[in-house]
Specification:
- It is built from eight helices and seven strands.
- It is globular.
- It has a seven-stranded parallel beta sheet with strand order 3-2-1-4-5-6-7, with helices on both faces.
- The protein has one domain: Rossmann fold.
- Helix 2 links the parallel strand 2 and strand 3.
- The protein is 45% helix and 15% strand.
- By secondary structure, the protein is α/β, with parallel strands linked by helices.
- Bound molecules: nicotinamide-adenine-dinucleotide (NAD).
- Nicotinamide-adenine-dinucleotide binds next to helix 1 and helix 6.
């Protein structure tokens, strides 16, 4: 298999400055793509863009809150202006609010927090798909990956309901989009990572991570690069007949 599987592609990665997002951006750059980095955190996004550009990557950073349609509109236009039409979307941005390391139960959850998680994790993916899919349809080619989670497929007491509900919602959105966009030459899939060693899980109590490791046949947390590798595979030319699927990257944890 060629290592330049994505030569000539323009990929937009949301949540690009985070643990998994930055590994995804690096994987695409290594495979010859240009990468639009979108993140809420302007300082971290600019730092990443500088580091990747210094290493010879064709990148552009756009600050956006993916929960805001207007922000997404601005970011998509800015990436397309800098790098060309986006043919590959990795809708990766997501949040998982915890309180003293613990998920809040529904009956004590702040309604504003519920809405914020839905806005970022679910509406954010809709916003980016709504903005980028028309160009893909017009060009009769596109690749979309949504970042779900095993928490969207099984009950886990270490995450909160808003997180689980949005990640389950992404699976429905992925399948629906795959049906709608397939006739236009566009594949849409979701990744369902297990516990991956990133800043998102670094704040969790050590016991929570240890319990997951115990329940994981491969007996470790995953790495962001392992998620990035699966993502690049799903958008590669060779994976062109795979659509509407949810692929676990979870070391065998849950086997959902
Ligand atoms: P992370 O916290 O390291 O990175 C998330 C990134 O998203 C950050 O750079 C953050 O600034 C950005 N972000 C947050 N809110 C945003 C917004 N409103 N608009 C734009 N950007 C925003 O998290 P991660 O572990 O890299 O997670 C990436 C994705 O993978 C998330 O969707 C997460 O739910 C999913 N996931 C992670 C794990 C895990 O164990 N780490 C497991 C399953 C799924």
């Amino acid at each position: 298999m060629s290592t330049l599987q994505h030569a000539g592609r323009v990929v937009l990665v949301s949540g690009a400055a985070g643990g998994i997002g930055s590994a995804i951006a690096e994987a695409y750059l290594a495979q010859g793509a240009a990468v639009g980095l979108v993140d809420f955190d302007a300082a971290a996004g600019e730092r990443l863009a500088q580091r990747l550009a210094d290493a010879g990557g064709r990148v552009a950073f756009a600050q956006a809150d993916v929960g805001s349609y207007a922000d997404c509109e601005r970011a998509c236009a800015s990436v397309a202006g800098a790098l060309g039409p986006v043919d590959t979307l990795v809708a990766n941005a997501g949040i998982s609010p915890k309180h003293a390391g613990k998920p809040a139960p529904v009956w004590r959850m702040d309604p504003a927090e519920w809405r914020r998680v839905v806005d970022v994790n679910l509406n954010g993916v809709f916003n980016l798909c709504r903005l980028l899919a028309p160009g893909m349809v017009e060009r009769r080619f596109g690749r979309i990956v949504a970042m779900s989670s095993v928490a969207g497929k099984a009950y886990l007491d270490i995450v909160a309901a808003h997180y689980a509900a949005t990640k389950a919602g992404l699976i429905g959105l992925t399948r629906h989009l795959a049906g709608e966009l397939g006739p236009h030459g566009i594949t849409v899939n979701a990744l369902a990572p297990g516990r991956i060693d990133t800043p998102m899980v670094a704040g969790a109590p050590a016991a929570a991570n240890a319990a997951v490791v115990d329940a994981t046949p491969l007996r470790r947390l995953g790495t962001p690069h392992e998620v990035a590798h699966a993502c690049a595979f799903l958008t590669s030319t060779g994976a062109g007949f795979i659509t509407g699927q949810v692929i676990d990257v979870a070391g065998g944890w849950l086997m959902t």
